[in-house]
Design goal:
The chain is mainly alpha-helical. It has one domain (2-102). The chain contains 5 helices and 2 strands. The protein has helices at 2-6, 8-14, 25-33, 56-71, 87-102; strands at 76-79, 82-85. A two-stranded antiparallel sheet has the order 1-2. Strand 1 (76-79) and strand 2 (82-85) form a beta hairpin. Helix 4 (56-71) packs antiparallel against helix 5. The longest helix has 16 residues, at 56-71.
Length: 123
């Protein structure tokens, strides 16, 4: 979708991935498009007149969570008199995931009672 492709440069800055070495534009477009949001007119994605609009904060939180998962196996250790705090990268990725998750668009759901209750006529 062209609208999502236009968001790639900004999205790359949000996720600290300036090149396509780790995430290609195609992958990022898929992630962005998996987070549709209400458009500026208030129309929801399930309607035909929806103008493509996406929640970049939710998409960025997803990418940062994925990065944190890749870093989860890193551990701190000492060797030859030096201390290596490799777990800090994981902690920073989790912090970024929380940051963007806290800024994502509010979502709504529509509840429908099933089965519908019988309505009695009151005269």
């Amino acid at each position: 979708m062209a609208a999502a492709a236009d968001l790639i440069p900004r999205f790359r800055r949000m996720i600290a991935e300036p090149t396509q070495d780790v995430y290609s534009d195609v992958v990022l477009i898929e992630v962005i498009e998996s987070h549709p949001s209400q458009d500026p007119s208030g129309v929801f994605p399930e309607y035909a007149d929806w103008e493509p609009s996406f929640d970049l904060n939710a998409a960025a939180a997803e990418i940062w969570s994925e990065k944190a998962a890749a870093l989860a196996c890193n551990f701190d250790f000492s060797a030859d008199g030096s201390n290596f705090s490799r777990s800090q990268a994981y902690q920073q990725a989790i912090a970024q995931a929380r940051y963007f998750s806290a800024r994502r668009s509010p979502s709504t759901i529509r509840l429908q009672m099933a089965p519908r209750p019988e309505v009695e006529d009151v005269d």
